[in-house]
Design brief:
By secondary structure, the protein is an alpha/beta fold. It has one domain: Alpha-Beta Barrel (TIM Barrel), CATH 3.20.20.70. Helix content is 38%, strand content 14%. The strands form two sheets. The chain has an eight-stranded mixed sheet with strand order 1-2-5-6-7-8-9-10, sandwiched between helices. It has a two-stranded parallel ribbon with strand order 3-4. Helix 5 runs parallel beside helix 6 and helix 7 packs across helix 9. The longest helix is centred in the middle third of the chain and has 14 residues.
Length: 302
């Protein structure tokens, strides 16, 4: 019998973390024929994917199904979030030909739904907004039937940058909340929780017809009550889709893992989120923002 909602929400970890990952976090090592084909394609076109750069546990499954999340604007981030595996430092010069190469890859992969994300580029005057907009335009030109989801950085909350992207009519505008307000200073020092909420308010004002989406990673020290409070905040700014997944520590230099969130807890978050009015909630240990993105689009009726 599963735990009651009261038991799940009220749980506080009192035991040490197990030495091995729980069985529900085990995945098959990548290496199938489609995985290898996509790996060669990305190298041939000099493209990056967040699947590789962020050490996503689902890379084998997604690439075998012919789906990938393209990471534009290079593979070096101007910020240094405590949980993120992407390299931090001085990014390379922006490559203006990259959007067209992404579109060529989308066409070659025959995608129905493309997800585009990026590192933070606080060094650029528009924080990288033009690159997102041009990538959307190129994809729609090369593959008119393909829907496009953008997982954007916060652009430091700049409304002009948000507008540049939304003016190209992406099918989903996604920005990850990542964690609860109490942990922002420790986990995401370059970000601001209040800025995230303002971004969604701004996006809905500029393009109310474009669905918005956000994601949270769990296991960095938050409580279940805090997670539910974040879900309520996101609904208050009319976010349509939410994803919740387990934090997996990339290396010893990253923030320590506080707990393994159980499947029962993830089910509880899904049920509570749907009751709050989200159009779709993707919640599970291996969920990442773009995991099963096409299925999320269909489930949300986008």
């Amino acid at each position: 019998m599963g735990e009651t909602l009261y038991q799940i929400i009220g749980r506080h970890r009192a035991e040490p973390l197990p030495e091995r990952k729980p069985g529900w976090l085990k995945v098959r090592a990548p290496g199938g024929p489609n995985y290898l084909r996509l790996k060669h394609l990305m190298r041939d076109l000099d493209l990056h994917t967040v699947c590789e750069e962020a050490h996503c546990p689902n890379v084998g499954e997604c690439w075998e199904h012919g789906t990938a999340t393209f990471m534009i604007l290079g593979d070096v981030c101007t910020r240094n979030c405590a949980y993120c595996a992407v390299a931090h430092g001085r990014p390379p010069k922006f490559d203006a030909a990259e959007p067209e190469r992404v579109a060529r890859a989308v066409a070659e992969m025959n995608l129905q739904h493309a997800v585009i994300t990026s590192v933070d580029r606080d060094d650029l005057p528009d924080f990288g907004a033009w690159a997102f907009a041009e990538t959307i335009r190129q994809i729609k030109q090369h593959v008119p039937t393909c829907s496009v989801e953008v997982l954007v950085p916060d652009f430091q909350g700049n409304e002009d940058a948000i507008r540049v992207v939304l003016d190209t009519s992406p099918d989903i505008y996604n920005h990850n909340t990542e964690t609860v307000p109490r942990l922002y200073k420790r986990c995401r020092p370059g970000g601001r929780y209040e800025r995230v909420m303002k971004i969604f308010t701004t996006a809905k004002r500029i393009a109310p017809h474009v669905p918005t989406k956000s994601g949270i990673i769990l296991g960095m020290g938050e409580t279940n009550e805090e997670v539910l409070a974040v879900l309520r905040d996101l609904r208050a700014v009319d976010v349509d889709i939410i994803t919740l997944g387990q934090y997996l520590r990339p290396s010893a230099s990253h923030i320590k893992l506080d707990r393994y969130v159980t499947p029962d807890e993830f089910r509880m978050f899904r049920e509570e989120g749907m009751a709050m009015g989200f159009r779709h909630v993707e919640s599970g240990p291996l969920v990442r923002s773009s995991y099963h993105a096409w299925e999320q689009v269909q489930a949300a009726g986008v």
